[in-house]
Specification:
It is a single chain. Helices cover 41% and strands 10% of the residues. Among the domains are: 203 residues, Lambda Exonuclease, Chain A; 41 residues, no CATH class. The strands form two sheets. It has a five-stranded mixed β-sheet. Strands 6-7 form a two-stranded parallel sheet. Helix 6 links the parallel strand 3 and strand 4. By secondary structure, it is α/β, with parallel strands linked by helices. It is built from 15 helices and seven strands. The chain binds iron/sulfur cluster. Iron/sulfur cluster binds next to helix 2 and helix 8.
Length: 414
């Protein structure tokens, strides 16, 4: 879990962004902090529950203290019963891993580590650190259920591991030879990704990212847009991102009010014909493949631009060519109970007034917990084939093998 700190410039949690776009950290300073979303607050609460369950198992804690702490967490308005199940999963994973050490490992939670050997002024917080024999194990809990996060090649996790190595070096010296980083994300999958590296490999990686971290910190970076722009504070207004997606450099010299230069008109007319001489009018499959890769973040970029423009107009600024209107109105009952009573008075009974539909598999599983659900539903669950789905070739799944001539109808994008 990243430690919030208003003064951190180059952060471990932002590694994915600044390792690609070294200009981002200083550029972002010109934009206000984003409001903490309700999802982030839920995540913080879920982390506290995980930590409590972890401490209960690995450190001396009376049941009374545990219950009192849990009661406090349950009083939070964002509390969800599911948090107990995810915390139990996290604790059980740690328990299982601790059993793999020859003797009970040293285990600590919410460990703040110094990353300044690699990132100027850098620091971070490891959710759980375990040390035993020649192994250091770092485990991170993620509560999000939108995007799966892997610990493989995960710069944030590697940085935390480097910080933990430094912190515990005075006690363990050179006895630690191997490092394992793991990410537990039980709301998406029960499979926990792990990356094993030797300490030498990890330190060599750390040396190699130092120049980027320094460039990012000292404002010597270069802009580079890509999917990592998604969480950048200034992403809507970033020119590098606009050029990446819209090729704005083609319009250099054009009148920004919409008039085009003569040269651009000629280019446009040529484009309106069947392509410029020597350029085939039809895109090749190779070009479509490249365009699909380049266009992957296009929808996100458009959403960010729309959100920015809407907020700007609501704040009283002008975005030429755009205005904000009231969205489509949808009729609603002032009092749904009263409305249904009126319908009953008209002779319609509840069997007609209500749709009765079963909860989904996932909702039912949530009621019992995954383990119990697997026991009681043995033989009741099938896996119908998924729709053919377009993904990039680095996706781990095997290529789809059609079984009939019409199998490709209705291909979905992901
Ligand atoms: S939006 Fe993208 S390109 Fe622009 S500064 Fe942020 S990360 Fe860099």
């Amino acid at each position: 879990m990243a430690t919030p700190n208003a003064h951190a410039v180059v952060t471990a949690s932002g590694y994915e962004r600044w390792s690609h776009c070294t200009a981002a950290p200083r550029y972002e300073e010109g934009f206000p902090e984003r409001e903490t979303s309700v999802y982030a607050l839920e995540g913080t609460l879920a982390h506290s529950v995980c930590e409590l369950y972890g401490r209960k198992y690995f450190t001396p804690m009376s049941t009374r203290k545990f219950n009192a702490e849990l009661k406090k967490l349950k009083a939070d308005k964002l509390w969800q019963d599911e948090m107990v199940k995810t915390a139990e999963f996290y604790r059980d994973f740690l328990k299982e891993k601790s059993n793999e050490f020859g003797a009970m490992p040293y285990t600590s939670f919410e460990v703040r580590v110094d990353l300044s050997d690699y990132i100027p002024d850098g620091f971070g917080t490891c959710d759980c650190v375990m040390i035993g024999g020649d192994t250091l194990r770092i485990t991170d809990y993620k509560h999000g259920k939108g995007v799966p996060v892997s610990s493989i090649n995960n710069g944030q996790m590697r940085l935390y591991a480097l910080g933990a190595l430094k912190m515990f070096a005075p006690i363990y010296g050179d006895t630690i030879k191997r490092v394992c980083t793991a990410i537990v994300q039980p709301r998406i999958t029960e499979d926990v990704t792990e990356e094993w590296l030797t300490v030498d490999e990890l330190k060599a990686w750390g040396e190699q990212i130092k120049p980027k971290a320094q460039a990012a910190y000292f404002g010597m970076g270069t802009f580079c847009a890509g999917e990592w722009c998604r969480f950048c504070r200034g992403n809507a207004q970033c020119r590098a991102r606009a050029e990446y997606y819209a090729g704005f450099d083609k319009f250099v010299g054009a009148d920004i009010q919409g008039r085009m230069t003569e040269a651009e008109m000629i280019v446009r007319e040529q484009a309106e014909c069947m392509g410029a001489p020597g350029i085939p009018p039809i895109l090749s499959d190779a070009e479509i493949g490249e365009l699909l890769i380049e266009a992957q973040g296009l929808a996100d970029w458009l959403n960010d631009l729309q959100e920015y423009a809407r907020d700007a107009i609501l704040e009283g600024r002008e975005i030429p060519g755009w205005k904000v209107v009231e969205g489509r109105q949808v009729r609603a009952f002032k009092d749904a109970d009263k409305a249904l009573e009126i319908m009953r008075g008209e002779g319609y009974d509840d069997a007609i007034l209500y749709d009765r539909k079963p909860k989904t598999l996932a909702q039912l599983e949530k009621l019992t917990g995954k383990k119990r659900f697997a026991e009681i539903m043995e033989g009741q669950i099938e896996w119908p084939p998924g729709k053919p789905t377009l993904v990039t070739e680095d996706d781990k799944r095997d290529p789809y093998r059609p079984t009939g001539p019409h199998e490709f109808a209705g291909v979905a994008d992901e």
